[in-house]
């Protein structure tokens, strides 16, 4: 039985989930970002207990089908932006459709209706967040960051960054490295 978990963003979350599973005496095959593979089918009582424990830890067990799909889309986007090296990054829409196993048009419509933001805007928002993180390292040039995140140019990166933050990347770096 595979369960989706919302808000799993780091290895620390994996440790928290494993601890909760063990505390509840639940056998599992694997725990990864956004997903648990449970050995057995959970009773309603076990499911409610696990849901409450994960909620207390700031995580949300995804029971609704659409919520699971949305979380799978977000997880795929996170993989593209944070976990893949630049040489293997495919087209966003193709990658998301393959990862989630649905037609991209369907996923895009569902995502927009459910979250109130398009997949494209969500990707831009997450990429800008990643740019902010990379700007904290003084050794990363804007050219390196643009290349790593597959921006077509430094100007494209700067324009998107300024639209989201109101600052240019260089001013952001100066303000945060004081």
| SS element count, helices | 9
CATH top level label of the largest domain: Mainly Alpha
β-strand percent reads: 5-15%
- What name goes with the CATH superfamily of the largest domain? Homeodomain-like
Helix content: 55-70%
The strand line-up of the biggest sheet is: 2-3-1-4
Number of domains: 2
Taking the alpha carbons of the first and last residues, their distance comes to 49 Å
User: Which CATH architecture of the largest domain is right?
Assistant: Orthogonal Bundle
Q: Report on the biggest sheet.
A: 4 strands, antiparallel
Order of helices and strands: EHEEHEHHHHHHH
Uncertain segments are none
What is the 3D shape? globular
Number of strands: 4
Structural class: alpha+beta
Under CATH, the topology of the largest domain can be stated as: Arc Repressor Mutant, subunit A
What gyration radius follows from the Cα positions, in whole Å? 19 Å
Averaged pLDDT, please?
A: 88
- Classify the oligomer: single chain
Can you tell me about this structure?
This protein is of the alpha+beta class and 178 residues long. The chain has two domains: 62 residues, 2-Layer Sandwich (Alpha-Beta Plaits); 113 residues, Arc Repressor Mutant, subunit A (Orthogonal Bundle). The chain is built from nine helices and four strands; from the N terminus they run βαββαβααααααα. Strands 2-3-1-4 form a four-stranded antiparallel β-sheet, sandwiched between helices. Strand 2 and strand 3 form a beta hairpin. Helix 3 crosses helix 4 and helix 6 crosses helix 8. It is globular and about 55 Å long. The N and C termini lie far apart (49 Å).
């Amino acid at each position: 039985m595979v369960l989706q978990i919302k808000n799993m963003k780091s290895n620390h979350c994996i440790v928290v989930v494993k601890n909760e599973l063990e505390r509840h005496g639940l056998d599992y095959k694997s725990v990864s970002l956004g997903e648990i593979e449970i050995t057995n089918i959970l009773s309603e009582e076990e499911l409610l207990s696990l849901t409450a424990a994960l909620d207390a830890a700031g995580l949300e067990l995804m029971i609704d089908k659409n919520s699971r799909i949305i979380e799978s889309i977000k997880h795929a986007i996170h993989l593209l932006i944070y976990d893949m090296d630049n040489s293997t990054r495919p087209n966003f829409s193709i990658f998301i459709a393959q990862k989630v196993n649905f037609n991209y048009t369907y996923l895009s419509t569902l995502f927009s209706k459910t979250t109130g933001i398009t997949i494209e805007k969500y990707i831009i928002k997450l990429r800008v967040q990643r740019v902010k993180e990379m700007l904290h390292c003084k050794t990363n040039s804007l050219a390196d960051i643009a290349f790593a995140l597959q921006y077509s140019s430094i100007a494209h990166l700067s324009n998107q960054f300024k639209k989201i933050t109101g600052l240019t990347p260089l001013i952001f770096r100066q303000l945060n490295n004081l």
